[in-house]
Amino acid sequence: MPDLPELNPVVHGRLRLALLSLLSGVEEAEFTWLRAKTEATDGNLGAQMLKLEEAGYVAVEKKFVLRKPKTLYRITATGLQALTEYVQALKQLLGPAIDT
Amino acid sequence: MQDHITEQELKERLSLIESMIAEGRRNTESWGWTFVLWGAAYYLALAWSAWGHSAWAWPVTVLIAVMVTVVVASLKGGNHPQTTLGRAIGSIWIALGISMFLLFLALGLSGRLTDRHLFVAVVSAILGMANGASALILRWKVQLACAVVWWVAAVATCFGRDAQSLVVFLVAIFLCQIAFGIYGLIAEAQVRKRRSPVHA
Questions:
Q1: For chain A, which domains are there?
Q2: Chain A within 8 Å of B197 (Cβ-Cβ)?
């Protein structure tokens, strides 16, 4: 019997998974857009983004536009790879149950 | 870690990934208002050039419409994410705006903007090109229909009389700017209603 794959705990968190998935569909996104899409609180969102940043899955850029601070996030190649591997692991774990 | 994870939870995670990727790629930007604004600007420029007989009617109206578009867009869409799709569509309309502004400014100032048929044909063909390109990228049949209307207007105006050419242009503006813009605004409002939250 083949070994079952491990699910990456950093990716598996529900909000972190949602954030990585959102970022995989865009070039870059603002903190406020991610907050609106997930309806997470500022504190929770900031904490989860920090975990993703520490894992090297997202890159952050802070800048001022018209004197207003903007925090922009983009998924890194490592983050995209981690998300892809997570999806593959999920599919492997679900096996035939994936279509039911 | 997956010893305690149920099959239901795994499926739910997969579903979350799919819905979030789709949400990120969905064009949530609101652009219906720009079509209405530019439709009104075309009507204004037409009226000004017809009754005021001014060569400045089109360049000035277009310049004001550009400024209003930039200001309103920056106020409305502060936190929209940048997507390749959004950049591709935006590039088409920015290039169209620059081309039209330069072309009609030069034609107006040089006094060569005298043939209404040619003017309507060029404007309609350019708008048909932009709507067609956008429609093909977005696979949006309603916008493709707008492109067809502009192309028909471009061809029809070459063969009609002055008054007929003007009527063709006015109808095309109404259908492809005003009506299409209002349709876009309604569609965008429906999309906003369907948004669903994600909790940790």
A1: 9-90 (1.10.10.10)
A2: yes
Name the helix (H) or strand (E) containing A74: strand A68-75
Nearest CA-CA partner of B200 in A72, A41, A89: A41
Q: For residue B73, which of B37, B49, B25, B47 has the smallest C-alpha distance?
A: B37
Contact A87 B14 (CB under 8 A): yes
CB B80 within 8 Å of CB A33: yes
| Sheet arrangement for strand A29-30 | A29-30, A68-75, A58-65
Q: Model confidence over B17-73: pLDDT tens digits?
A: 988 888 776 655 678 899 999 999 999 998 988 887 777 788 788 889 989 988 888
Q: Which residues pair with A75 in a beta bridge?
A: A58
Q: Check the CA dihedral B155-B158-B164-B168 and report its sign.
A: positive
| pLDDT tens for each residue of B121-161 | 999 999 999 999 999 998 889 999 999 999 999 999 999 89
Q: Is B8 on the interface with A (CB under 8 A)?
A: no
CA separation for the pair A41, A34 (Å, rounded)? 10
